[in-house]
Amino acid sequence: MRLPYRSIDKKNVLLRRENQKNNINHKAMKRILIVGASGQIGSELTPAFRKIYGSDNVVASDLIYPLRPELADAGPSVKIDATKAQDIADAVKKFNIDTIFNLAAILSAKAELNPMLGWNVGIGALLNCLEVAREYNTAVFTPSSIGAFGPETPHDGTPQDTIQRPKTIYGVTKVTGELLSDYYHKRFGVDTRSVRFPGIISNVTLPGGGTTDYAVEIYYAAIKEGKFTCPLKEGTLMDMMYMPDAIHAICQLMEADPSKLIHRNSFNITAMSFGPETIYAEIKKHIPDFTMTYDVDPLKQGIADSWPNYMDDSAARSEWNWKPEYDLQSMTVDMLKVLKERFNK
Ligand code: AKB
Question: Which of 5, 20, 175, 182 gives 20 to 30 Å between its CA and that of 138?
Protein backbone atom coordinates (compact mmCIF):
# COMPACT_ATOMS: atom_id res chain seq x y z
CA MET A 1 0.00 0.00 0.00
CA ARG A 2 1.24 3.47 -0.90
CA LEU A 3 0.71 5.84 1.96
CA PRO A 4 0.05 8.58 2.66
CA TYR A 5 -2.45 10.03 0.23
CA ARG A 6 -3.72 7.22 -1.90
CA SER A 7 -6.27 8.25 -4.49
CA ILE A 8 -9.87 8.36 -3.37
CA ASP A 9 -12.31 5.54 -4.01
CA LYS A 10 -15.46 7.60 -4.63
CA LYS A 11 -17.89 4.70 -4.33
CA ASN A 12 -16.53 3.82 -0.93
CA VAL A 13 -16.74 7.41 0.32
CA LEU A 14 -20.34 7.84 -0.88
CA LEU A 15 -21.38 4.57 0.73
CA ARG A 16 -19.74 5.53 4.01
CA ARG A 17 -21.43 8.96 4.00
CA GLU A 18 -24.80 7.34 3.29
CA ASN A 19 -24.23 4.87 6.15
CA GLN A 20 -23.32 7.70 8.50
CA LYS A 21 -26.51 9.54 7.59
CA ASN A 22 -28.57 6.44 8.29
CA ASN A 23 -26.59 5.74 11.43
CA ILE A 24 -25.63 2.23 10.35
CA ASN A 25 -21.89 2.79 10.25
CA HIS A 26 -21.65 2.97 14.01
CA LYS A 27 -20.22 -0.05 15.66
CA ALA A 28 -19.10 -0.37 19.23
CA MET A 29 -15.33 -0.62 19.47
CA LYS A 30 -14.08 -4.19 19.15
CA ARG A 31 -10.45 -4.05 18.03
CA ILE A 32 -8.55 -1.06 19.34
CA LEU A 33 -5.11 0.38 18.49
CA ILE A 34 -3.55 2.83 20.95
CA VAL A 35 -0.84 4.94 19.34
CA GLY A 36 1.39 6.45 22.04
CA ALA A 37 0.46 3.88 24.70
CA SER A 38 3.41 4.76 26.98
CA GLY A 39 2.41 8.41 27.43
CA GLN A 40 0.44 10.02 30.26
CA ILE A 41 -3.01 9.13 28.86
CA GLY A 42 -2.02 5.95 27.01
CA SER A 43 -0.50 4.27 30.03
CA GLU A 44 -3.86 4.44 31.83
CA LEU A 45 -6.20 4.17 28.83
CA THR A 46 -4.60 0.91 27.70
CA PRO A 47 -5.22 -1.12 30.90
CA ALA A 48 -8.66 0.47 31.34
CA PHE A 49 -9.68 -0.52 27.81
CA ARG A 50 -8.21 -3.99 28.22
CA LYS A 51 -10.52 -4.47 31.19
CA ILE A 52 -13.57 -3.28 29.26
CA TYR A 53 -12.93 -4.70 25.78
CA GLY A 54 -10.72 -7.71 26.59
CA SER A 55 -6.90 -7.82 26.72
CA ASP A 56 -6.48 -9.40 23.29
CA ASN A 57 -8.56 -6.67 21.64
CA VAL A 58 -6.45 -3.69 22.71
CA VAL A 59 -3.12 -3.28 20.92
CA ALA A 60 -0.62 -1.01 22.66
CA SER A 61 1.95 0.77 20.48
CA ASP A 62 4.69 3.33 20.89
CA LEU A 63 7.88 4.52 19.27
CA ILE A 64 9.84 3.43 22.34
CA TYR A 65 9.80 -0.35 22.16
CA PRO A 66 9.57 -2.81 23.83
CA LEU A 67 6.90 -1.23 26.01
CA ARG A 68 7.04 -1.27 29.81
CA PRO A 69 6.20 -4.78 31.13
CA GLU A 70 2.82 -3.73 32.54
CA LEU A 71 1.73 -2.74 29.00
CA ALA A 72 3.68 -5.35 27.04
CA ASP A 73 2.77 -8.38 29.16
CA ALA A 74 -0.95 -7.75 29.47
CA GLY A 75 -1.91 -7.82 25.77
CA PRO A 76 -0.70 -7.42 22.19
CA SER A 77 1.80 -4.69 21.40
CA VAL A 78 3.67 -3.34 18.38
CA LYS A 79 6.29 -0.70 17.62
CA ILE A 80 4.81 2.26 15.73
CA ASP A 81 6.52 5.44 14.63
CA ALA A 82 3.37 7.53 14.20
CA THR A 83 5.11 9.80 11.69
CA LYS A 84 5.26 6.74 9.37
CA ALA A 85 1.85 5.95 7.88
CA GLN A 86 2.98 2.49 6.83
CA ASP A 87 3.66 1.51 10.47
CA ILE A 88 0.08 2.41 11.39
CA ALA A 89 -1.40 0.73 8.31
CA ASP A 90 0.54 -2.48 8.97
CA ALA A 91 -0.74 -2.66 12.56
CA VAL A 92 -4.34 -1.91 11.51
CA LYS A 93 -4.19 -4.72 8.94
CA LYS A 94 -2.38 -7.21 11.17
CA PHE A 95 -4.69 -6.79 14.16
CA ASN A 96 -7.89 -6.08 12.23
CA ILE A 97 -8.36 -2.75 14.02
CA ASP A 98 -11.67 -0.82 13.95
CA THR A 99 -10.75 2.15 16.18
CA ILE A 100 -7.47 4.11 16.43
CA PHE A 101 -6.60 6.24 19.47
CA ASN A 102 -4.04 8.76 18.30
CA LEU A 103 -2.28 9.95 21.45
CA ALA A 104 1.05 11.01 19.94
CA ALA A 105 1.83 14.65 20.82
CA ILE A 106 4.47 17.03 22.15
CA LEU A 107 2.92 19.12 24.97
CA SER A 108 2.64 22.91 24.92
CA ALA A 109 5.74 24.21 26.71
CA LYS A 110 8.07 21.58 25.21
CA ALA A 111 6.74 22.21 21.68
CA GLU A 112 7.53 25.94 22.04
CA LEU A 113 11.19 24.98 22.42
CA ASN A 114 11.09 22.88 19.23
CA PRO A 115 8.16 23.99 17.04
CA MET A 116 9.06 21.76 14.07
CA LEU A 117 9.03 18.70 16.32
CA GLY A 118 5.67 19.83 17.76
CA TRP A 119 4.21 20.16 14.27
CA ASN A 120 5.74 16.98 12.82
CA VAL A 121 4.54 14.77 15.66
CA GLY A 122 1.16 16.49 16.18
CA ILE A 123 0.13 16.80 12.55
CA GLY A 124 2.23 14.05 10.99
CA ALA A 125 0.73 11.41 13.26
CA LEU A 126 -2.79 12.76 12.89
CA LEU A 127 -2.75 12.89 9.09
CA ASN A 128 -1.33 9.38 8.95
CA CYS A 129 -4.03 8.06 11.29
CA LEU A 130 -6.75 9.80 9.26
CA GLU A 131 -5.43 8.43 5.96
CA VAL A 132 -5.20 4.90 7.33
CA ALA A 133 -8.69 5.31 8.80
CA ARG A 134 -10.07 6.37 5.41
CA GLU A 135 -8.39 3.43 3.71
CA TYR A 136 -9.40 0.77 6.26
CA ASN A 137 -12.66 2.27 7.52
CA THR A 138 -11.67 2.71 11.15
CA ALA A 139 -12.80 5.34 13.65
CA VAL A 140 -10.23 7.80 15.04
CA PHE A 141 -10.05 9.55 18.42
CA THR A 142 -7.51 12.40 18.74
CA PRO A 143 -7.38 14.57 21.85
CA SER A 144 -7.53 18.32 21.40
CA SER A 145 -6.87 20.68 24.31
CA ILE A 146 -7.61 23.97 26.05
CA GLY A 147 -4.45 24.87 24.09
CA ALA A 148 -6.66 25.19 21.00
CA PHE A 149 -7.79 28.57 22.39
CA GLY A 150 -5.85 31.82 22.50
CA PRO A 151 -5.77 35.31 24.01
CA GLU A 152 -8.74 36.56 21.92
CA THR A 153 -10.97 33.68 23.11
CA PRO A 154 -13.48 34.61 25.83
CA HIS A 155 -11.73 33.30 28.97
CA ASP A 156 -14.71 32.88 31.31
CA GLY A 157 -17.23 30.22 30.33
CA THR A 158 -15.40 29.70 27.02
CA PRO A 159 -18.14 28.68 24.57
CA GLN A 160 -18.05 25.46 22.54
CA ASP A 161 -17.94 27.41 19.28
CA THR A 162 -15.80 30.52 19.58
CA ILE A 163 -12.64 32.32 18.44
CA GLN A 164 -9.66 29.96 18.13
CA ARG A 165 -6.46 31.89 17.42
CA PRO A 166 -3.83 30.16 19.63
CA LYS A 167 -0.35 31.68 19.78
CA THR A 168 1.56 28.44 20.52
CA ILE A 169 2.65 25.79 18.01
CA TYR A 170 0.86 23.23 20.21
CA GLY A 171 -2.35 25.24 19.85
CA VAL A 172 -1.83 25.58 16.10
CA THR A 173 -1.51 21.77 15.81
CA LYS A 174 -4.63 21.29 17.94
CA VAL A 175 -6.79 23.65 15.85
CA THR A 176 -5.41 22.10 12.65
CA GLY A 177 -6.16 18.67 14.10
CA GLU A 178 -9.76 19.65 14.86
CA LEU A 179 -10.22 21.00 11.32
CA LEU A 180 -8.60 18.01 9.63
CA SER A 181 -10.65 15.57 11.71
CA ASP A 182 -13.89 17.35 10.80
CA TYR A 183 -12.76 17.45 7.16
CA TYR A 184 -12.14 13.69 7.04
CA HIS A 185 -15.52 13.11 8.61
CA LYS A 186 -17.46 15.36 6.22
CA ARG A 187 -15.49 14.57 3.07
CA PHE A 188 -14.78 10.86 3.52
CA GLY A 189 -17.23 9.72 6.19
CA VAL A 190 -14.46 8.76 8.65
CA ASP A 191 -15.86 8.46 12.19
CA THR A 192 -13.63 11.06 13.89
CA ARG A 193 -14.30 12.29 17.45
CA SER A 194 -12.38 14.41 19.94
CA VAL A 195 -12.47 16.33 23.21
CA ARG A 196 -10.61 19.47 24.27
CA PHE A 197 -8.86 18.17 27.37
CA PRO A 198 -7.98 20.49 30.23
CA GLY A 199 -4.88 19.75 32.34
CA ILE A 200 -5.06 16.07 33.26
CA ILE A 201 -3.95 15.08 36.75
CA SER A 202 -2.74 11.52 37.16
CA ASN A 203 -0.52 9.32 39.30
CA VAL A 204 0.81 6.66 36.92
CA THR A 205 2.91 8.42 34.25
CA LEU A 206 4.13 12.02 34.57
CA PRO A 207 2.99 14.27 31.70
CA GLY A 208 6.23 16.16 30.80
CA GLY A 209 6.47 19.45 28.90
CA GLY A 210 2.95 20.75 29.55
CA THR A 211 1.82 24.08 31.00
CA THR A 212 -0.61 22.36 33.39
CA ASP A 213 2.03 19.89 34.66
CA TYR A 214 2.46 21.85 37.90
CA ALA A 215 -0.91 20.50 39.06
CA VAL A 216 0.52 16.96 38.92
CA GLU A 217 4.00 17.83 40.20
CA ILE A 218 2.61 19.58 43.28
CA TYR A 219 1.20 16.28 44.62
CA TYR A 220 4.50 14.43 44.13
CA ALA A 221 6.40 17.32 45.76
CA ALA A 222 3.98 17.44 48.70
CA ILE A 223 4.49 13.74 49.41
CA LYS A 224 8.20 13.45 48.65
CA GLU A 225 9.64 16.80 49.81
CA GLY A 226 6.94 18.65 51.72
CA LYS A 227 7.57 21.76 49.60
CA PHE A 228 6.88 22.96 46.06
CA THR A 229 8.10 25.78 43.79
CA CYS A 230 5.26 26.82 41.52
CA PRO A 231 6.10 27.99 37.95
CA LEU A 232 2.80 29.90 37.60
CA LYS A 233 1.67 32.90 39.58
CA GLU A 234 -1.19 33.07 42.05
CA GLY A 235 -4.57 33.54 40.41
CA THR A 236 -3.72 31.66 37.19
CA LEU A 237 -6.97 29.81 36.58
CA MET A 238 -7.10 26.79 34.25
CA ASP A 239 -9.47 23.89 33.69
CA MET A 240 -8.35 20.53 35.11
CA MET A 241 -9.57 16.93 35.31
CA TYR A 242 -8.63 13.74 37.15
CA MET A 243 -7.48 10.88 34.92
CA PRO A 244 -10.37 8.48 35.71
CA ASP A 245 -12.79 11.12 34.36
CA ALA A 246 -10.60 11.63 31.27
CA ILE A 247 -10.63 7.89 30.53
CA HIS A 248 -14.37 7.76 31.08
CA ALA A 249 -14.91 10.72 28.73
CA ILE A 250 -12.94 9.06 25.92
CA CYS A 251 -14.89 5.83 26.28
CA GLN A 252 -18.26 7.56 26.56
CA LEU A 253 -17.71 9.77 23.51
CA MET A 254 -16.48 6.91 21.33
CA GLU A 255 -19.47 4.78 22.32
CA ALA A 256 -21.97 7.64 21.84
CA ASP A 257 -24.75 7.34 19.29
CA PRO A 258 -23.45 9.31 16.26
CA SER A 259 -26.93 10.57 15.41
CA LYS A 260 -26.85 12.61 18.66
CA LEU A 261 -23.53 14.31 17.86
CA ILE A 262 -23.95 17.84 16.54
CA HIS A 263 -20.26 18.50 17.15
CA ARG A 264 -17.38 16.09 16.67
CA ASN A 265 -13.98 17.77 16.68
CA SER A 266 -13.78 18.86 19.37
CA PHE A 267 -15.93 18.99 22.53
CA ASN A 268 -15.09 21.27 25.48
CA ILE A 269 -14.94 19.15 28.63
CA THR A 270 -13.91 20.14 32.15
CA ALA A 271 -14.23 18.92 35.73
CA MET A 272 -12.81 21.78 37.81
CA SER A 273 -10.97 25.08 37.51
CA PHE A 274 -8.43 26.42 40.02
CA GLY A 275 -5.24 28.45 40.44
CA PRO A 276 -2.04 27.34 42.24
CA GLU A 277 -3.09 28.84 45.59
CA THR A 278 -6.30 26.79 45.63
CA ILE A 279 -4.73 23.39 44.95
CA TYR A 280 -2.00 24.26 47.47
CA ALA A 281 -4.60 25.05 50.14
CA GLU A 282 -6.42 21.80 49.41
CA ILE A 283 -3.26 19.70 49.81
CA LYS A 284 -2.33 21.61 52.96
CA LYS A 285 -5.57 20.43 54.58
CA HIS A 286 -4.03 16.92 54.50
CA ILE A 287 -0.35 17.86 54.95
CA PRO A 288 -0.31 20.89 57.26
CA ASP A 289 3.49 21.40 57.02
CA PHE A 290 3.45 21.60 53.20
CA THR A 291 4.90 24.89 51.86
CA MET A 292 4.81 26.53 48.42
CA THR A 293 6.82 29.38 46.90
CA TYR A 294 6.58 30.94 43.44
CA ASP A 295 9.28 31.11 40.75
CA VAL A 296 7.35 32.12 37.65
CA ASP A 297 8.41 30.59 34.31
CA PRO A 298 7.61 33.31 31.73
CA LEU A 299 7.06 30.79 28.91
CA LYS A 300 4.53 28.74 30.89
CA GLN A 301 2.90 31.84 32.38
CA GLY A 302 2.41 33.37 28.92
CA ILE A 303 0.80 30.18 27.65
CA ALA A 304 -1.44 29.79 30.73
CA ASP A 305 -2.59 33.41 30.47
CA SER A 306 -3.72 32.82 26.89
CA TRP A 307 -5.89 29.80 27.82
CA PRO A 308 -9.43 29.77 29.23
CA ASN A 309 -10.10 30.32 32.95
CA TYR A 310 -12.96 27.84 32.64
CA MET A 311 -14.82 26.34 29.70
CA ASP A 312 -18.50 25.84 29.06
CA ASP A 313 -18.90 22.10 28.42
CA SER A 314 -22.69 22.05 28.02
CA ALA A 315 -22.49 20.70 24.42
CA ALA A 316 -20.69 17.56 25.68
CA ARG A 317 -23.18 17.26 28.54
CA SER A 318 -26.20 17.43 26.26
CA GLU A 319 -24.88 15.53 23.19
CA TRP A 320 -23.33 12.52 24.96
CA ASN A 321 -24.12 12.96 28.67
CA TRP A 322 -20.66 14.01 29.82
CA LYS A 323 -20.49 14.37 33.60
CA PRO A 324 -17.28 14.25 35.66
CA GLU A 325 -17.12 12.40 38.96
CA TYR A 326 -14.13 14.03 40.67
CA ASP A 327 -13.76 17.57 42.02
CA LEU A 328 -10.65 19.10 43.61
CA GLN A 329 -11.47 17.68 47.06
CA SER A 330 -12.12 14.08 46.03
CA MET A 331 -9.22 14.08 43.54
CA THR A 332 -6.82 15.33 46.23
CA VAL A 333 -7.87 12.61 48.68
CA ASP A 334 -7.26 9.95 46.03
CA MET A 335 -3.98 11.38 44.67
CA LEU A 336 -2.46 11.67 48.15
CA LYS A 337 -3.59 8.18 49.13
CA VAL A 338 -2.05 6.57 46.02
CA LEU A 339 1.21 8.52 46.21
CA LYS A 340 1.60 7.99 49.98
CA GLU A 341 1.29 4.23 49.44
CA ARG A 342 3.72 4.31 46.51
CA PHE A 343 6.38 6.30 48.30
CA ASN A 344 5.78 4.58 51.61
CA LYS A 345 4.99 7.80 53.48
C1 AKB B 1 -0.38 21.08 28.35
O2 AKB B 1 -0.30 21.74 29.39
O3 AKB B 1 0.31 21.27 27.34
C4 AKB B 1 -1.42 19.97 28.29
C5 AKB B 1 -2.72 20.48 27.75
C6 AKB B 1 -3.58 21.30 28.59
O7 AKB B 1 -3.03 20.22 26.63
N8 AKB B 1 -1.60 19.40 29.57
Answer: 175
Locate the ligand 1 atom nearest the alpha carbon of residue 198 and give its number.
6
Which are the catalytic amino acids? Answer: 170
Specify the residue with its C-alpha closest to ligand 1, atom 6. 199
Alpha carbon nearest to ligand 1 atom 7, residue: 145
Condensed to tens digits (0 to 9), the pLDDT of residues 114-153 reads 999 999 999 999 999 999 999 999 999 999 999 999 999 9
Which ligand 1 atom is nearest residue 174's CA? 7
DSSP-assigned states of every residue in 206-271: ---S-SSTHHHHHHHHHHHTSEEEESS-TT--EEEEEHHHHHHHHHHHHHS-GGG-S--S-EE--S
Domains of the chain: 10-199+242-268 (3.40.50.720), 201-240+272-309+326-344 (3.90.25)
pLDDT tier at 25, thresholds 50, 70, 90: very low
